[in-house]
Protein: Phosphotransferase
Amino acid sequence: MASDDGVLREEAQVRERCKDLILSDETIAELMRRIMKDVEKGLCKDTHKEAVVKCFITYVQDLPNGTERGEFLALDLGGTNFRVLLIHLGQNHFDMQSKIYAIPQSIMVGTGEQLFDHIAECLANFMKEHDVYSHKLPLGFTFSFPLQQLGLTKGLLETWTKGFKCSGVVGNDVVQLLKDAIRRRGDIQIQVCAILNDTTGTLMSCAWKNHNCRIGLIVGTGCNVCYVEKTENCELFDGNTNKPDCIVNTEWGAFGSDGALDIVITEYDREIDENSINPGKQLFEKMISGMYMGELVRLALVRLTKDNLLFGGKLSDHLLKRGNFFTKYVSEIESDKRGSFLNCREVLGELGLSHATEQDCANVRYICECVSRRAAHLVSAGIAVLINKMKEPSLTVGVDGSVYRFHPHFHDLMVEKIKQLILPGIKFDLMLSEDGSGRGAALVAAVACREN
Structure:
């Protein structure tokens, strides 16, 4: 049995080794300067091409005002599944039916034509099931991948993320690819009214209930943000300049691929990046999102166990396998009451680490907290940059995504940190989005129809 002195020494060493996962105030201030610089680069015509944070114009210029009515389809493609939704908008209420469809691995890495034919087939089946097969319906298309928009219904895919590698899509208009697939079938009438990503959907969904919403944030499998910018600051905007505002999709997950994050990158971040499908890209996202958070913790656990600071130096085959420490484990472990390790023991048991001591459990929790707190502080730094840039006296940030939704402390960590970082006198609140990528897509289509 380890002595008390030995346990304390071990705990101190673990904390010392986790120091590089903790961001100082000076580091956060420097990151904020770099994020601001990159946002301005993305907005500017002369620097956009080499900008890392692209700040794509969405061409969504109007927020919901409550007068939207009718029947709309929404298609939400953003990961290994996609959803089709049928939404009825009435006065201050909506009725929604939806169905989730899987995308087989073979299609995720097949051709673009196969992907969009699969989606069109599922759309047709959904319309049959819901007795709207013969209706001509407007559709809002949430496409949660980096997109260069050339209009409300034209968007070129910049790069695939999240494990997709469909050929013949990068550089092409995904709305046209969807329309072509619908036309190849010839049996359904769908008018694609708008393409957007999940951040815009989140902003729109929250703005329908709260007209003060100006930022849409996703912290889930990926991480991205959009915000309302003055049209005059959007140098690449090619549309109606009479309207004062336009939503900008920052694609900030790419921040850092030029070295801007080197001041905070750890050995674990490097290893995640090297073993990812897109090395050197989406570095900010890889430090924050649910796709990577559990793996960051696993790498830290493996390293500290090899250095004899955890589990008596004894590793398990489960822990050594990449991807085996799920991000949901981080939320579960941090949900334990202080001093209790019920969830932690269950997780470690699943990983073949039943021999963990109480001190091991405390150390595992501490490592989880370091990784999730760093993620929350990185997101907060970026949000504070946008709030300070907009200079609105009061605004709401609409947020969605599994990490924000399910991590027990993420919301509080963000509120506390953003308060420290924004200019004096500005009020803000964080609002959990209700189905931004579904309802939000239908609302963008509804607002577009309202315009016509």
Observations:
- The domain at 59-196 is CATH 3.30.420.40 (Nucleotidyltransferase; domain 5).
- The chain has two domains: 1-55+209-433, 59-196.
- The mean pLDDT is 93.
